[in-house]
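FAQ: What does the model actually see?

It sees only this:
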Amino acid sequence: MDQIDHLSGIAPDTELYRIRRERPDFVDGTELCRQTVLTPAHGFDLDHALRAALAVRMARFIGREDLARTYDGMLANAGATPLFSGIAAGSEPGVEADGFLRAILRHADLVTKTPRNNTRADIEALEAAGLSNPQIIALSELIAFVNYEARVIAGLEILGEVE
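And it is asked to produce this:
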């Protein structure tokens, strides 16, 4: 069982579990993607604690407290500072946050809450705040993954109710 099975309530003896395993590339690929975006070997100066805090924050904004708790565990393992704990809780950081971090939070919140409102100007704002292209790509991958995972879990929960 993987995290998606667990959070969507899919048991190994169900038809839905077997159906997911008919496409192992999706099951294994999702797990590999989780590792790559949350704990990459090269983080491009977006450390694991920041990534975990952002994942918790996004999961909470989406309404997936179960997923947020999973990412909370990652945050604890990565070193939850008061700043990162506040970010995870959905708070706006105080004076300790620089423009770089504020831009990251603004972008993650925007894409998670209102993705259709994201424009080229928002990417340019990340660049203006000092994010490099690799950092923008890494941030985008993280945002996309957390939102993807939350939606897959929700879809599987619905399918599980029909089964």
